[in-house]
Amino acid sequence: MGDWFSREIADAGRLRLTCFLVAFIVGFLFIRFSVRMIRRQARWWPGNVAPGGQHIHHVVFGLVFMCVGGVGGLAIADGTSAWAGVAAGVFGVGTALVLDEFALVLHLEDVYWSEQGRLSVEVVFITIALCGLLLVGLRPLGADDVAGDGLWTIAFVLIFDLCLSFVALLKGKIWTGLIGLFVGIVAFVGAVRLARPDSLWARRRYAEGSRKERRARVRERRYRLPLQRLGDRLSDLVAGRPSGGP
């Protein structure tokens, strides 16, 4: 196990990313467990941090952890040392605490247990997915795959893939657009398929009542909504139900 870790993680330059991702997942699961215990008013759990009656959101602690881990990581020259892994882990915990309250920061109000609060969980899941892709060796825009093909080829591939991903995002396909930065064919599929009916692309290019607009809404009901409900169930299982009990 130790030899595998040294060969596949430390020697491959993935120590900090691995520590970040593991700490990020552990930090997110811990803080969600904590807030669910507080929501249940479990007597054995410490509860909110509220000195002088002022409730301190965990995003504040997350910012402190990110500063400590980020500055510490910059100060450590050896990226394969144990201290580099510790700094990355501290940064990962801080990032988890901040992104868990992403919706609160975005709306500048406490929407943690509302439907709007689901956005925080979605952002966390996206972060885990993108870090996982980086960890298995994929790189944004496939730069490594064309590194030996010449400057103009590299520039064309990068710009083309970036444009496809951007179109997919405009069509309301967040997962497709972001994963498409790593896997070009995913970006291509997202760019050529119909946009989601409420996306910026659809509002600008699909006239109300048009054939494309009707097809987009049919696809949304037939394919997207079942996947959304499945995602919501997974989110509720991990993070707690927004408007009901956890």
Automatic annotation (TrEMBL):
Is this entry keyworded Membrane? yes
Q: Which UniProt keywords apply?
A: Membrane, Transmembrane, Transmembrane helix
Instruction: Write out the transmembrane intervals.
Output: 15-35, 56-77, 83-107, 119-138, 150-170, 177-195
Name of the protein described by the UniProt record: Integral membrane protein
Organism expressing this protein natively: Actinomadura meridiana
